[in-house]
Every structure is written in C-alpha cells, then in structure tokens.
Hints:
This protein is mainly alpha-helical. It contains 13 helices and five strands.
Amino acid sequence: xxxxxxxxxxxxxxxxxxxxxxxxxxxxxxxxxxxxxxxxxxxxxxxxxxxxxxxxxxxxxxxxxxxxxxxxxxxxxxxxxxxxxxxxxxxxxxxxxxxxxxxxxxxxxxxxxxxxxxxxxxxxxxxxxxxxxxxxxxxxxxxxxxxxxxxxxxxxxxxxxxxxxxxxxxxxxxxxxxxxxxxxxxxxxxxxxxxxxxxxxxxxxxxxxxxxxxxxxxxxxxxxxxxxxxxxxxxxxxxxxxxxxxxxxxxxxxxxxxxxxxxxxxxxxxxxxxxxxxxxxxxxxxxxxxxxxxxxxxxxxxxxxxxxxxxxxxx
Length: 315
C-alpha cells in the first residue's frame, strides 16, 4: 500500500473539525509526506522514524511542530496496524510525543490593569475578561451580548471563533462538555463591562461583544499590533502572549482558593482522567471565587471603572 495514498484516505475519512483538519493536512503535507510519501506503509520503520524526527529538529522545525507531526504519524500507523498492513507501530521513540513547555509569564493584578490601561479602549474589557475569567481568545471573540449577564455577573461560553488559513471565520461548538460553561467575573469589572457594551459592542442581543475598529469581527491579526503596543507601554515581559492572560487568571484563581476541579471548570478544561471525576461547581462557590478575585483587584492596584447609570445590559 502506497503511503501517500493511504495517508490521504486516512485523513479524508477521519471526523475532524474544519480547523483541526486544516492543521493536520498542513502537517502531513509539510513534514510527513516529503519523507514517507513515495514508499509503502510497510517501509516506515522505527529507524526511519527516528532519523526523520532528528532531521526535522536539525532543520530548525520547532519542537511543538515536530511533536505534532510525530503524534499524527503515530495515529496513522496505529490504524495501519488495525488494518493489518503492518504488525506493530514503528513510532516507539520514548518522549517523542511530548515536549517541555517553557515557563509562562504570570502577571500580577496591577500588571494586568497596566496592560488594560495601555491598550486601545475597545480592547480594555477583552484584556480584563481574559485574565479574570480565563476565557480563550476564540471564546471571547465569539461572545454575544446575550451571553453576558450583568446582574448575575457571569459570562456564558456557548461557542468559540476559529479562523481558517484562507481567512474565513466561523463559530464552532466547544470541544467537550466542559467547554460549555458559565463563569463568574468580579463585580469590580462591572463598570468596564457597562461602558464597553455602551461604546463598542455590536447592537442587538446577538451582536458581538468584541468587534474590530471598523465594526467587523475580531481577528487576531487586527488585534495583535494593539496588544504588542500595550504590552510594551505597560512594561511587562516581552514574552507575554495574550493567551498567557489565561494562565495568569488560572494562577490568580488558585490563589483565591479554587480547587483543581473548580479551576478546570472555570477554564473549560477536560482530559480523559478529568472526565471520570468531572463535577459541576455550584454557582455559589463560583461566585465566591469571583468575589475573592475582586478583592485582589481592589488590593492590587486595579483601576476598575464605576458602573454606568444606564442599563448595563445595553439594547
């Protein structure tokens, strides 16, 4: 069986989300087929896999990309074993399926507000919610007005925005049941929320909470320059990516007393092990976590806005 033909059919028949399929096809095209495509499935040996992996790393391909390529090749070869094309999977290199994630920067409460104060006003709430609710960029970009409950002080995640390589944007469902969640935010952010809904959010209950400068959907590309400028102006680590605000929020929530299970619930995180013990938090306990985060804001130099006299829910 020709490897390229088998790999193409294998990818085609897998049930994958559009963005995941696009990533896998890219990894296959760039890193796997050039080395194995011309031969047969049975030609892929452990020695060849080890050599292939070493050459990718030597060529300067990032370790996360090499790990992803190895994981994809291993999954493909597992299917080949099931199809009885080979007797055992040649991808048996110890440690090749993982890499050490470098220590991610964590901001203090004062530093979070320093970045929020330095960024364009339309993105201030984006920074604050990322840090104090730990929502992902795609989840924030997909938020609608109806997902915000100013009275209960909660944000409900129902979908996440994804972007294909051709620039198309689409909303997708959370990857797991844990991703569909309601997260409490500190009352100290209500003023910022109210002002943002009045000044920047798209109109109507289904209007996007966060939009670009011209009123279009929020994209990483039309936000990145503002993020870099704000990061520099605030004087925080040059290694700080927007996604690190999520890590910061998780750390702050842990400091506020959240248990591991509660942290996983707020983050929408799940794993095979976590799925066995997953339990929903009570709203009272989630409220308590958000209230303690609010106390940290008051004591950490956060300049939260006062609530507007207008209806915080907007139109």
